[in-house]
Amino acid sequence: MSDATPRTKKTQEVDWEKVERFLRNAMPDLPEGEMTVRQFSEGYSNLTYLLQIGDWEGVLRRPPFGEIPPKAHDMEREFKMLEKVHPVFPLAPEPYVYCEDPEVMDKHFYVMEKKQGLVIDEELPEVYGSPEQAGPIISKNVISTLVQLQAIDYKEAGLADMGKPEGFMERQVKGWIKRYHHSKTDDIEGLEELEQWLTANIPVNEETTIVHNDFKLNNMVIDEENPGLATGVLDWELSTIGDPLSDVGSTLAYWGQAEDADIGINIISSQPGFYSRKEFVEEYAKQSGRDVSNINYYLAFGFYKLAGILQQIYYRWKNGEIEDERFRHLNKAVANLIDMANRTRRGEVL
């Protein structure tokens, strides 16, 4: 979370004086002094701001401006999830306060702990040394953090009501196919065949764990000096309980390799020293003790999900909802991901 950017015009649409008054009421121990606000680099989901008052820091999360679909961007659910997860998995930020008062802000929001460290996205921090040195350490860190999260007893943590494990993968697969077709633009070779295979081979949950649902390197915070030490795991918006291998498949899809075609996202793991996807799976199996013999299904679905995410963005660009030329060629990345998913199910990727 060290990549905070200066205020944008959109931050002016929030009355930060009202927010500060609310926070001082709700958190009487805040220090004196002016509250400063910086927006983190903006994605296409929730908006995130760094708040600072004296030596106190917090992070505010809220939905995007404008109309949003019903049930989307549920800040209250994310806040409640963190209330349950943080005590048993301290890498999840501690949630401080939730607000849904329209007099304070146009959308509901919550404020949480600011995790200290580095987020690795486009570049490897120089302090970590060369990719050959840091790559294996970071790779093992990502895997061990995921295994640690999945080892938590979700029932003891009070999370049994935060999802429906029965039929989890079936809902995931059918839901993402529906989302993809809602925003479909181009005819892509192999798409129908892939969707038929995904639907016909849905695995049944043999185990239920916490599922982060967006577990990837740039959603982790890593110690500023030690690349082998995680200090935070971010973005719990989609978290639930379900099949642990679904998180592995998604993480692997984002874990790009040098020989991959363009898949439309920033890739650090393609540098020398980082584990290959195959080495990632082997280390995960070793640390978790889980049977990964069906991992090709989960990776193929991970590629399909990522294709669906990019397709939704491309659809909005093509319809003029987003004016950003970076997205002009996202349809090519979508086609590449569909091809990678088909190659995965044929056993050609891992």
UniProtKB/TrEMBL annotation:
UniProt KW Transferase keyword: yes
Organism: Planococcus maitriensis
Aminoglycoside phosphotransferase domain boundaries: 36-263
Keywords from the named record: Transferase
Keyword field contains Secreted: no
Pfam families: APH (PF01636)
PANTHER family assigned to the protein according to its UniProt record, in alphabetical order: HAD FAMILY PHOSPHATASE, HYDROLASE, PUTATIVE (AFU_ORTHOLOGUE AFUA_1G12880)-RELATED
Name this protein carries in UniProt: Phosphotransferase family protein
CDD domains: ACAD10_11_N-like (cd05154)
InterPro entries associated with the record: ACAD10-like (IPR052898), ACAD10_11_N (IPR041726), Aminoglycoside_PTrfase (IPR002575), Kinase-like_dom_sf (IPR011009)
An example Gene Ontology molecular-function term: transferase activity
